Amino acid sequence: MSQPTSNLFLFVGKTVNDEYGRSIGRIVSFTVNPTGRVTSVFLKHEDGEFHKYSSEQFRVDGDNIVFLPSIKLRVKTLCDEIPLIWRKEQALNELLEKKKVPSDLHNELQKTFEGALNQLKTDAQTTSDNIDKYIVRCNAQIRKLNSALINLEIEREIGRIDENSYQTAIEMIQDGLKWAHAEREDLEALKNQLSNMLLGETPTISPLQEEEPTTETSETPETQETTSPPLPEPPVVVHVKSEN
Description:
Layout: E1 2-3, E2 15-18, E3 23-32, E4 38-45, E5 50-54, E6 58-61, E7 64-67, H1 70-97, H2 103-157, H3 163-198
Parallel strand pairs: 2-7
Antiparallel strand pairs: 1-6, 2-3, 3-4, 4-5, 6-7
Helix pairs in contact: 1-2, 1-3, 2-3
């Protein structure tokens, strides 16, 4: 269960993981407003770089702290705001039919709602395009890890890698494949949620259940592709050791 971000002070110097268990970095400092609320968090990443993120991208979960990607937070915000404007516009039209609002005021408010709705729809399309880029990145990562796994098996078969080193390496690769597949599934669910919402359907499951509304921070995925073919699931390798 998530806890207030004020508890972030307890995690200074501690490691932050993403939702899939990957290490993101360590908390080094905060930005705090005059009322004492944490508004942003400074992280030192594994590569030594320091970056600042909105405090709402962090969820305290017991003794752990989880980093939430801004793309997920943006989808949740859009899926809250767009249906709300639809409902307001519908209510406004019903009030006009009941003659509870003057036509000139109705037209003025309707233009306001339409402008806001069009902007949110544009944001939703941009967000959907960004999700596609993240999915491409996951696919590329899965391909690389599958290649690494195959090459590891080849080198082990010809006796160039000892058993201990092999076991350590294969565990790391299989963890990476598990994380990449889980992230891709989440991204595909986010894209479907956006599409259903824009079609006027209500998604039954939200990828951000029990999380507070948040704001978006700037994250630019490094991708060069826009589409990718379906990929095979990671191979499972079993070795049987014969007894002399």
